[in-house]
Amino acid sequence: MMSLLGRTDVDAGEVFVNFNQNITSLAVATSGGYSLYSLGSVDSTLDKIYHTKSDELLLIERLFESSLVAIVSQSAPRKLKVCHFKKQSEICNYSYANSILAVKLNRERLIVCLEESLYIHNIQDMKVVHTIRDTPCNPQGLCALSSSSEHCYLAYPGSVTAGEVQIFDAINLHAKTMIPAHDTPLAALAFSPSGTEIATASERGTVIRVFSSQDGSRLFELRRGLKRCVSIVSLSFSTCAEYLVSSSNTETVHIFRLDRSATETAEGHGGKQSSDDWMGFLSKTVTSYLPTQVTDVFSQGRAFASVTLSEAGVRRMCAITTIQKQLRLLIASQDGYLYVYSIPAVEGAECQLIKRHDLRMEDHYAMDIKGLNSGVSIGGAAGIPPGGAGSAGGSSDGKSTAAATASSGGGDKPGGSYASAVKGDEPAGGASNSA
User: Fold this and answer.
1) pLDDT of residue 15
2) C-beta of residue 47 within 8 angstroms of C-beta of residue 40
3) End-to-end CA distance of the chain
4) Cβ contact 231:216 at 8 Å
5) I want to staple 25 with a disulfide (CB 3.0 to 4.6 A). Which of 20, 50, 106, 140 is the partner?
6) What integer is the mean pLDDT of 166-173?
7) For the whole model, what pTM was predicted?
8) Minimum mean pLDDT among 128-132, 307-311, 377-381: which range?
């Protein structure tokens, strides 16, 4: 769902951080391996549920709370590996003509984004069901996939010169709508949990807009700042869909409240006008004499709350979720820290820091899965003999080349192991042949 691309952080010795689709888990990759953490008790502890040594990673995506992870390494940037981490086995791998820039997952589809094409896989069997070729040049791998199975939409840039968003129905495999979101090229995209709304930001970074992903109508316009243009790094809806959070290359994280009741109330008034309506009428009358750029500023929403961190220039991934019945802002940064903040009830207030976790430090609460084979590379399975991967063929014209491998569980069929990983119903001790 959310990852740091443009991987200068790896070269600088930083960490790669990424939340899963429903913000219940955090993936952290360093030069020595990767770990998966549970966020259920993050107010006090950060529980490590998995760790393995591996090559340096470019990307890692976990499918909700399942055992399935998708991995791309620095040493093989054109190869996607899909692994069952609880069984410590590689399920399959796919190779592409060019480097993989982004991977997105939900319970129906797996999306692989290249610079000028997108591959749509059926996540149940990993077959390529559709390829979107000759997309506008997308060197950052900017795309978004809704986590919803009901509204399973894919979004990607529709232009290299303007902020056009192409919405594609990933189930029925056809273009749904094109949204002219900004005048300048896109920098960030994010779907709401239901998939019915999409948030966008351009390279200027001053205005964030929210649109209906179904008909392209504009729902909200939010102003992040007035003076300086910034690079938006992270854009995310809260799991309750009532908030939107953004981070940039500045030291400030902004939280916006999406007040849908205001629109509903205005529509429900009918022909009656309250004092607020008259104030709105007077405001519209006054602003009608002002330039469009000025009136736009008056109509845009402001940040509900914010967090000011100590240092600018650090790439940070942000998410808002409910932890033990309390709304929390989570900020995972490439310098190796996870911050947990409370969200104030009063607009304009600063969020309060609850906990800071050091992602580099071995914590006393970590429970690594036992029996790991430190000599196995990414996705490598203890117990799989050399040559155990069966090639499914392919070509070099941009089509995928697949190589599927059986899981390490003795006697398990690849299909059964894969299905259990996708569903997330595999018990923690499911590996039957751990080394």
Assistant:
1) 87
2) yes
3) 32
4) no
5) 20
6) 98
7) 0.79
8) 377-381
Phi, then psi, of 291 in degrees rounded to 5: -60, 155
Mean pLDDT of the chain: 79
Q: What is the pLDDT of residues 324-338, one digit of tens each?
A: 999 999 999 999 999
**How many Å apart are CA 128 and CA 399, to the nearest integer?**
9
